[in-house]
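Recap from last week: sequence in, structure out.
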Amino acid sequence: MTRIETPVTRLLGIDLPIVQAGMSWASSCSALPLAVSNAGGLGVVAAGPMRLSDLDRTLSEVAGGTDRPWAVNLPLYRAGADEVIELLLRHRPPVLVASQGGPRRYLDRFHDVGTRCLHVVAGVEHAEKAVAAGVDGLVVVGAEAGGHPPPAMVTTSVLVRAVARAVPSVPLVASGGIADGAGLAAVLALGAGAAQFGTRFLASTESAVHDAYKQAVLDAGVDGTRTVGHGLGVIRVLDNDFAARMRSLEASGAEEELRRKAFQASTLRDAALHGDVTEGKVEAGQSAGLVDALLPAAEIVARIVREYRAARAGLPPIT
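Predicted C-alpha cells:
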C-alpha cells in the first residue's frame, strides 16, 4: 500500500491524506465509504438524512466490510441528533466528523469509547474554540465548497493558512475546491495534513445519488455554481432553474417570507434521489469544473495519488 504520512494520517491510522466528505445521500450508504477506506483513505458515512434503522444497518455493513478506519459525519442540528449520538456510541466508529454545533455536546462520550473526533469549522475563532474544547483535529471548510460554505466566504487557501497559523499543533483537513492531487499538494503546503474531497466523489460509481446528478457535476464548469439562500442558510449549488429563481428574488430585495418559501420548495432529496437537476438543490462545489470522469472510488483515490506525485515532481528546485 502506498503511504503519504502526515499528522492527519498518523492521528487517524490511514495510509493516505484523502478524506471523502460526508455528503447527504451520496454517502448515506456503505458502498462509497467502504471503497474509499479500503483504498487507503478515510471513507465517511453521512448520517444527516438517515433514519436510525438505516444508519444502524449501514454502520454494521461498514464495520464488517473493512479492517481500515472509517468515519461518520453528524450534523448536530439534525432532528433527533441525541438519538443518533447514542446509536453511534454503540457502534464505536473509529472517527467522528461533527458539524454545525459545539463539540462539548459530544466530545467526552466519544473519547470514552475510543473515537477520534474531528470538528468542522469555517473560521479561526471557531477553530480556536473547538481546539480549546479538546477536539483531536479540524476540518476547515472554505468558500469553494459545495453544500454549506462559510458565512464569511473566505477561500480555502486563505482560511486553511490562517487556521494553521492560529492552531499550529492541531491536525487539519482542508476542504473546498479540491478535486485532484495538485490540490492535495497545495493544501499540504499550506499546513493541512489531508484534503477532503466531496464533489470529486459525487462523480463516483459508488456514490448513491441519481445518475442525472452525477452527469450535472460532470457537465459543470468552474463557474457553474451559485450561492443562494442568503439570510436563510447559504448553500452552494449548481446553476439551474431553482438557483436562477433564488438569485432573482435576492437581487430584487424580495421579502424574507417569499424567499424562504421558494428556498424550501426545492430540496436536495429531489435532486439526489429523483434526479431533478432542474428544480432540485444540486449541491456541489466549484471543483465540479475540475471533475472530468465518472470513476470507481478506488480509482479516484489512486488517481489523486498519481497526480500528487506529478505535482511534487513538477515543483522547481531551489538552486
